[in-house]
Protein: Cytidine deaminase
Amino acid sequence: MNLAKNLAQRSHCVKAQVGAVLTKDTRIISIGYNGPPSGTHNCDEDFPEEGCPRDSKGSCSLALHAEQNAILYASKNGANLEGSTLYVTLSPCIACARVIFSMKIKKVFFMESYARYKGIPVDEGVEFLRKFGIEVIDFGCN
Structure:
């Protein structure tokens, strides 16, 4: 989790900095942090005051989430994610949870609540993962 926390600091997002680490069989297989696709822009440089444009739900319209970046990088490089473990500094949103489930990641550790961060009543992503048999562990002191 310390590596995920350190990776979060690499994010150029002015709203939230999130890091993710994928492991399998005691090895790190991929890392990621939240931000726009490579080669597009950096929020802290292009939108330093207000952050990048928001979508209809108030979320960043341009960035990929940390877990998406870690999963995409692993997949791009041919890693088999089935049975892997994800460490992420912010619990997965519902969209990321669907991707995590689809990639057959077996366990997710998180530090902070996405619901608390977004001001919504429930961590939908955590509930989704648990409903479908993925072990989700609150690693933080929430």
Summary: The chain has a mean pLDDT of 90. The radius of gyration is 14 Å. The chain has six helices and five strands.
